[in-house]
Design a protein that fits this description.
Distance between the termini: 39 Å
Shape: globular
Radius of gyration: 17 Å
Strand order of the largest sheet: 1-2
Structural class: mainly alpha
Low-confidence stretches: none
Number of helices: 7
Helix content: over 70%
Largest sheet: 2 strands, antiparallel
Order of helices and strands: HHHHHHHEE
Length: about 170
């Protein structure tokens, strides 16, 4: 169970933080390469959405205290800043690569930031009930992504009616 204090690291905290931080960097790098190759923008965006949501949901409750998730975020940001140091427009390119077709990068940043804020709120409200935290994060990550992953190729076939451009 995660204690809501910043304390000493355990070996598991360090291992989870290293895995989470590095996996985040790898997932973002794969999504970036997909976008560079001209893959439809929704595919790399949903890859990041599903992968990172799953990683966060399945690791966050195994830390001993808040130092572990903070270390994971630090490792991810270090990887990102290292890449940015080698390519100064990387951050803006990542944001544009993950944006919806008509959106700007700022909207993508805001959506990602608000997603992390909502994950943090669920964590703080239900930290004694890990099953609620995991279920809520996975529901958001997988449910939203399923709308595009399943909806793009198969949407509108069974029921032709549309609402605001969306199909059932």
């Amino acid at each position: 169970m995660v204690e809501l204090v910043f304390g000493d690291f355990t070996a598991l905290d360090i291992a989870l933080a290293a895995f989470t931080g590095l996996a985040g960097g790898v997932v973002v790098a794969i999504a970036y390469r997909m976008a560079e190759r001209g893959v439809a923008k929704w595919k790399p965006r949903k890859l990041v959405h599903i992968s990172m949501g799953t990683i966060i949901a399945l690791t966050v409750m195994h830390y001993s205290n808040l130092s572990g998730p903070s270390l994971a975020a630090g490792i991810f940001l270090t990887v990102l800043l290292y890449a940015w140091a080698h390519k100064s427009d990387l951050i803006s390119e990542l944001l544009l690569a993950g944006s919806r077709e008509a959106d700007k990068g700022l909207g993508t940043f805001a959506a990602g930031f608000m997603g992390m804020v909502s994950f943090a709120m669920v964590f703080l409200l239900f930290f004694q009930r890990p099953e609620i935290i995991v279920a809520s994060i996975l529901t958001v990550s997988w449910g939203d992504a399923a709308g595009e992953v399943i909806g793009r190729p198969y949407g509108g076939r069974l029921v032709k009616a549309r609402y605001r451009g969306k199909s059932l």
